[in-house]
Amino acid sequence: MLLMMLFCNLEEKKMKNLNDRICLNSINIANGFYYKNTIFDLYPLLLSLDAQIEFKNILTKKNYTYNAYSINRDDYIQNRHVLFLSKLKFPITNLWNKSFCSRIFDYTFSFNFLDEINIIFICVLLNVKRNIISDFLMKIFYNDKVITLRDFQVLLLNKTLPLSLVEIEDSLRMLDKSIRDVKNFSLEERSLKLIKNFYFDILFNF
Prior knowledge:
With 206 residues, the chain is an alpha+beta fold.
């Protein structure tokens, strides 16, 4: 019984430390940085992608409106556990009318609990008018890096929907090359494959 209590206390402490780390690190995303242990909080990710989020404090009934340019980091961390999402505008501008977001979990073996999971967050934003792609933006958040890919890097500008299989394959090859060409950045082949699978699903199901 005593051993069980000690084990539970250790697990509780481990999760508390993990949650503290997530809480402290995740808010930095609003300034363009992503930390791989931001598993439970998507709001800072959305802030970095030009979202505006309104919360209501369930204790004081006070409203808080956040975006990447006005967020108060300390205020958010202090009140995070009592904030209830009331409104979300994503993105703030009207430049994009299609958006696709996903978290990809790539499990790796490690004796360190915090290093067992690599989390990749992907967001694809498009502006489509009369079935023609007029603008494209893709962001990949991994560890403390943010990769930004534009339309000319994936050969989608002015393409008509639905895309042909040849156009999709050409875009996938360019995506692969553009990611590999990013300086001071490297992905495992398995992680790159997961990103490409997500991207393929978007293009194929348009």
